[in-house]
Write a structure and sequence with these properties.
The protein is of the alpha/beta class. The strands form 4 sheets. It has a 7-stranded mixed β-sheet with strand order 2-10-9-8-7-3-4, sandwiched between helices. Bound molecules: pyridoxal-5'-phosphate. Pfam families: Aminotran_1_2.
């Protein structure tokens, strides 16, 4: 027998199955709110203008594709720093480029496991499904608390505070910096200002997942929670993704940053872990981001296009609520909201109305084109 005889088949990703069903649906008015990528008013996920321009520059000017180091493109990480952190003491910051926000989360999880095996990670649920296998694969133990009540569409702030107060010193708390996936329910500035000092007081280590900066309320507003956490806590991990706010998804662009008095020690561990995982990250996407952020013109173009994306999402949220006040999507931010629907209702939306969403009731608001909004609102009303 082979060692591989011990393997058992794994379930397929339900979202990928949904993509297949949508593709094979012949109905002309079908609506896809399943996949988690931005779509414009024509239903497209275009390459941003600044990205195209940066790629043209790279094609013309790039002299070599020789190896960088395990830290990837250092200038890329340096240019991102003020956008993410605002003013920050550079001596207390270290970071490496990673394959996407996913790579950053995994590297951060492994750093924590290296610090102490079996570390507990508090996480509000529902959360991005991949958080769970990712943290567990690194040897961490997840401790869930309730983040969002789907039936009442309310963020469970009391549960968050209770979880922090019940935690042990040295536990980690994983926080979505903005545009919570899958619920869109973010803490208010006041709530962040309560959480940030409480986390420090309770001796927890905050790990902030910032995957959608600029798609909620703007680049600075979307980082306000993270900055409050950094202001109050001696050590903070930040997993960052450029895949949504630069539209670079498949290029896998991200970074892990750590704020700490022992930045040098931590950086040496990040490099060792990166080497053991992927040796060095893929270059192209980070080179695009670096080229954009190194150019005032391209940066202005990127910011303007990102702002237009953000405003389109806000516009869809308002248009749906204007169409049917019973579907109030204006209290959440970013691409996602989670509707209070039963499995039966979600199936009826798909089978009867050709409206596709994740089995959890998560919808990608950007999946709605303007002309699809009435049909979507009518379909939800019909199944409720
Ligand atoms: N974190 C959250 C909350 C996400 O929703 C995602 C992607 O969907 C990621 C991290 C990972 O992003 P990336 O595609 O850059 O790996």
């Amino acid at each position: 027998g082979s060692i591989l005889d011990g393997l058992c088949a794994q379930p397929a990703d339900p979202l990928l199955a949904l993509i297949g069903m949508f593709r094979d649906d012949p109905r002309p008015g079908k609506i896809d709110m399943g996949v988690g990528v931005y779509r414009d008013a024509d239903g497209k996920t275009p390459v941003m203008a600044a990205v195209k321009a940066a790629e043209a520059i790279l094609l013309k000017d790039q002299q070599t594709k020789s190896y960088l180091g395990p830290e990837g493109d250092a200038r890329f990480a340096e240019l991102l720093t003020p956008i993410i952190f605002g003013d920050v003491d550079a001596a207390r910051l270290c970071g490496v480029q990673t394959p996407g926000g996913t790579g950053a989360l995994r590297l951060g999880a492994e750093l924590l496991a290296r610090g102490r095996a079996g570390t507990r990670v508090l996480v509000g649920t529902p959360t991005w499904p991949n958080h769970v296998p990712l943290m567990e694969a690194a040897g961490l133990k997840l401790v869930p608390f309730k983040h969002f009540d789907v039936a009442t569409q309310a963020l469970c702030f009391d549960e968050t505070l209770a979880a922090i107060n019940a935690a042990e010193r040295g536990d980690v708390i994983l926080l979505h910096g903005c545009c919570h996936n899958p619920t869109g329910a973010d803490y208010t500035v006041e709530q962040w200002n309560t959480l940030a000092p409480l986390i420090a007081e309770r001796g927890l280590l905050p790990f902030v997942d910032l995957a959608y900066q600029g798609l909620g309320h703007g680049l600075d507003a979307d980082a306000a929670g993270l900055r409050a956490v950094v202001a109050h806590n001696p050590e903070v991990l930040v997993a960052y993704s450029c895949d949504k706010n630069f539209g670079l998804y498949r290029e896998r662009v991200g970074a892990l940053f750590v704020v700490s008095d022992r930045a040098e020690l931590i950086q040496s561990n990040l490099l060792a872990l990166a080497r053991a995982n992927w040796s060095m990250p893929p270059d192209h996407g980070a080179a695009i981001v670096r080229t954009i952020l190194d150019s005032p013109e391209l940066t202005a173009s990127w910011r303007a296009e990102l702002d237009a994306m953000r405003l389109r999402i806000l516009g869809v949220r308002e248009a749906v609520a204007a169409h049917d006040p019973a579907i109030d999507l204006t209290r959440q931010s970013g691409m996602f909201s989670m509707l209070s629907l039963s499995t039966e209702q979600i199936r009826a939306l798909r089978e009867v109305h050709a409206v596709y969403m994740a089995g959890s009731g998560r919808i990608n608001v950007a999946g709605l084109t303007p002309d699809a909004i009435p049909a979507f609102a009518a379909a939800v009303a019909a199944v409720r």
